[in-house]
Specification:
By secondary structure, the protein is α/β, with parallel strands linked by helices. The protein contains 11 helices and 13 strands. Helix 4 crosses helix 5. The mean pLDDT is about 90.
Length: about 300
């Protein structure tokens, strides 16, 4: 799969603050890549560096397998700050100005307005728009020229639930057309519902990088029962991945240090003469994994 963005050991410092610390990432074509972290974790600084808005102190990055250039920048659309358009102009006229700045024609304006569900309001003044509509117009301006990559920084920040749902649906629709999307957010639910891949940042450091599905597939624990809970509890302590056990009413909750296959666990007990009457796998949520990573990085 083609590498769209490769970041190599990039760092950025503001005085005594290390905003980004030796960060390396790869984003492949077609991915919806989430950069997740609390406020101040380095998300916006990272996006600003890869867009050449600020310079890194060290490290490097490549777009589409080559050094950043004016040509590669034309293949990237971005929304980094709050929507900022002329308040007395319509979406059409605001987008004409954006198109002029990008040195392109006006023929793509209707397409992006339809895609962002603003076509019916194309001749309405921008100042009358809700914040959610303003955000969608910002996305429309980034999509002019049909870029290969769309970069969004906290796209649902400040939106009500309906606005969040609209932006989420829009991102998924754009991704469904093959556009690679890089999205920075501090909202776990947003990343879990939208992204295929995620990198977790804290204090400028990368704590995790991988598929969202792999995180959600990790078993947090197993709920077990047998006719002899005492023997079951004693036996599980000899399992190489055993971490802890919590007794319940007729069951026990078992936690492991790493991934354990349910079939392997059942076989483990059977070989010790214990027949399980109940086995329930509890999946770890992205939130649990995220909080665990942050807790380990204090």
């Amino acid at each position: 799969m083609e590498t769209v963005l490769a970041i190599h050991n990039i760092s950025k410092r503001y005085g005594k603050i290390q905003a980004v610390n030796d960060l390396s990432l790869e984003v492949k074509k077609g991915q919806v890549f989430g950069i997740l972290g609390p406020n101040g974790s380095g998300k916006t600084t990272t996006l600003s560096m890869i867009l050449d808005l600020i310079r890194a102190n060290s490290g490097s990055f490549q777009w589409f397998g080559a050094e950043p250039s004016k040509e590669s920048r034309k293949r990237i659309g971005s929304v980094i700050e709050s929507p900022n358009f002329f308040p007395y102009l319509s979406p059409v006229n605001n987008l004409k100005i954006v198109a002029d700045i990008k040195n392109m024609g006006f023929e793509d304006i209707d397409r992006v307005l339809r895609l962002t569900m603003l076509y019916d309001r194309r001749n309405t003044r921008f100042k009358t728009f809700s914040f959610g509509m303003k955000q969608r117009l910002a996305v429309a301006s980034a999509l002019l020229g049909n870029p290969d990559v769309l970069i969004l920084d906290e796209p649902t920040n400040g939106l009500d639930p309906q606005g969040i749902a609209h932006i989420r649906e829009l991102i998924l629709q754009i991704a469904g057309q093959g556009t690679t999307i890089i999205i920075a957010s501090h909202l776990l639910d947003e990343i879990q519902k939208i992204c295929s891949h995620v990198a977790v940042l804290n204090k400028g450091k990368k704590l995790f990088d991988g598929k969202v599905s792999e995180v959600l597939a990790i078993s947090d624990s197993f709920e077990l029962a047998s006719d002899d809970l005492e023997s079951l509890t004693k036996a599980i302590r000899s399992h190489p991945a055993f971490q802890s056990v919590t007794p319940g009413e007729g069951t026990v909750q078992i936690y492991f240090k790493n991934v354990v296959n349910p079939a392997e666990l059942n076989r483990f007990f059977f070989e010790q003469g214990i027949t399980l009457t109940h086995l329930s796998e509890r999946k770890r949520s992205l939130e649990q994994h995220f909080l665990e990573l942050l807790d380990n990085n204090k």
